[in-house]
Specification:
This protein has eleven helices and eight strands. By secondary structure, it is of the alpha/beta class. It folds into two domains: 157 residues, NAD(P)-binding Rossmann-like Domain (Rossmann fold); 69 residues, N-(1-d-carboxylethyl)-l-norvaline Dehydrogenase, domain 2. An eight-stranded mixed beta sheet has the order 3-2-1-4-5-6-7-8, with helices on both faces.
C-alpha cells in the first residue's frame, strides 16, 4: 500500500489549505485547487511547496491516488464535484469529503464507484488537531476504509471510524451533548459561562488529554459511574431545541468574535491575544501527546 500518495485538495480556504499542509509535510505530492486568483497568490506565498491550480484541468489525474473535497457546505456543488471526480480520477483513487455536516452517502448518491467514497472530517485548526473522522456510507468498502485510515496515520493524524452516518458524526455529537448541558446550567442559574469554561478546562477536560471518557471510567470503576449515572441522568438536559441563552445571544447579534461579542466581549486586540494563546496551548498539548501519535517512537 502506497502511503505517500499523490493527493488533490479541492478548495483553498483555511481548512483546505491546512489539510494540504498536513499532506505535504507527510511527503505527499500535493495539489490544491482554488479558483480565486487572489487566494492562489496568497497560497503561493504561504505554501510554496504545494502546487496550486485554478481548476481541475491542471491536475495530473493519471497519478492521483486520493482526493479531499473542502468546498463550501452546500450539497449540490459537492455532488457536481464528485460526479466530475468520478470521471477524472483513476478508478482506484480514494474520493473523500471534509464536510462537517453533509453525509457522504448523500454526496455520492447515484454515482458510480461509491465504495471508494468516504467522509474525511478534519477539525480546525487541521494542521494542529490530530483527530480526523473517517465516515462510511452503506456503500463504502471496508478494505478501502482501512486503507484510508492507514493513510491518515501516515500523515500524523489519529483516525476514528464512523461506521454509520448520522448528524454530527461522532466528535461533534459528543461536543454538542456537552454544550447542551452547559447551556442548560447557565439558563438555570447554576453557573456563569466563565465558570462552565473553567470547570471543563481545569477539571474533567484537563484529564481528557490523557484518557477519554470510557477509559477514565475504567480507571475509576464502572460501578462508581453507574451509580452516579443513576443519580444524575434523570436531571440532565434533554432539550430538543437550542437553549434559551444561545437563542438570545443569536437574536441580539452576539455571535462571538466575528461580531465583537458572544459569551465574552471581543475587541480586535482581545481577539489577537486569544488566538495567539489558543494556538500556543494547542501546540503545547500536541507536544505532550506526540509520543502517542501514529508513527511516533515507542517509549
Amino acid at each position: 500500500m502506497n502511503l505517500r500518495k499523490t493527493t488533490v485538495v479541492v478548495g483553498g480556504g483555511t481548512m483546505g489549505a491546512d489539510i494540504a499542509l498536513t499532506l505535504e509535510r507527510a511527503g505527499c505530492e500535493t495539489h490544491l485547487v482554488e479558483p480565486r486568483a487572489a487566494r492562489r497568490q496568497e497560497l503561493g506565498r504561504t505554501l510554496p511547496a504545494i502546487a496550486t491550480h485554478e481548476s481541475l484541468d491542471g491536475i495530473p489525474w493519471s497519478r492521483v491516488e486520493a482526493v479531499i473535497e473542502a468546498i463550501p457546505e452546500i450539497l449540490e456543488p459537492k455532488r457536481e464535484l464528485f460526479a466530475e471526480l468520478v470521471r477524472r480520477a483513476p478508478p482506484d483513487a480514494l474520493l473523500t469529503s471534509n464536510s462537517s455536516a453533509i453525509p457522504i452517502g448523500a454526496i455520492g448518491a447515484g454515482l458510480a464507484t461509491r465504495e471508494r467514497m468516504f467522509g474525511l472530517h478534519y477539525f480546525m485548526p487541521a494542521h494542529a488537531v490530530p483527530l480526523v473522522e473517517v465516515i462510511y456510507s452503506e456503500a463504502s468498502d471496508a478494505a478501502r476504509g482501512e486503507e484510508l485510515c492507514a493513510f491518515m496515520r501516515h500523515t500524523g493524524k489519529v483516525p476514528v471510524k464512523v461506521l454509520k452516518e448520522m448528524p454530527g458524526f461522532l466528535a461533534n455529537r459528543l461536543q454538542h451533548a456537552l454544550c447542551r448541558e452547559a447551556f442548560a446550567l447557565i439558563d438555570a442559574g447554576v453557573a456563569t459561562a466563565e465558570d462552565v469554561d473553567l470547570a471543563v478546562r481545569f477539571g474533567f477536560g484537563f484529564r481528557y488529554i490523557a484518557a477519554g471518557p470510557l477509559l477514565q471510567r475504567d480507571h475509576a470503576g464502572l460501578d462508581v459511574h453507574c451509580n452516579a449515572a443513576a443519580t444524575m441522568y434523570p436531571s440532565l438536559a434533554c432539550d430538543k431545541a437550542p437553549a434559551q441563552v444561545l437563542r438570545e445571544h443569536v437574536a441580539a447579534g452576539h455571535l462571538g468574535m466575528k461580531a465583537g461579542r458572544g459569551f465574552y466581549e471581543w475587541t480586535p486586540e482581545a481577539i489577537a491575544r486569544e488566538r495567539d494563546r489558543y494556538e500556543r496551548l494547542l501546540e503545547a498539548a500536541l507536544a505532550l501527546v506526540e509520543r502517542e501519535l501514529p508513527g511516533a517512537p515507542s517509549r
